[in-house]
Amino acid sequence: MKHISHIGIAVSDLDAGIALYQKLGFTLEAIEEVPSQKVKVAFFPCGNTRLELLAPTSEDSPIAKFIEKRGEGIQHLAFAVDDLPASLTEMEEQGVQLIDKEPRPGAHGAQIAFLHPRSTGGVLIELCREKDGGH
Ligand code: ZN
User: Fold this and answer.
1) Which of 7, 10, 14, 98 has its C-alpha lying 20 to 30 A from 39's C-alpha?
2) Residue 133 pLDDT > 60, yes or no?
């Protein structure tokens, strides 16, 4: 685990979320739709980390389900790793339950995989191999 790649924050209304974080002093870097996750993502850089506002684009989006159950707020923490397949193997060897056994494409050209919150104390953790290899 190298550093926090990003913090995923679930919002029901992306424009309202963007306006809020701009008010808090952050600068919007980009907006990207990730069809595989049925989300629209707004990126706010913060040092070598980013805040990612995640808004559902459909009712069966994982983010829509999250908001329905728990309301808006922090949804996941993503840690940057150098070698995602190796990290996943290591996690499995440690007895950590994986949601994704194989890396899959995430926002920003990254490869990502989620660990199951059941085996990580209720925190949804994402491992993220950033496109540029990290900062
Ligand atoms: Zn993420």
Assistant:
1) 98
2) no
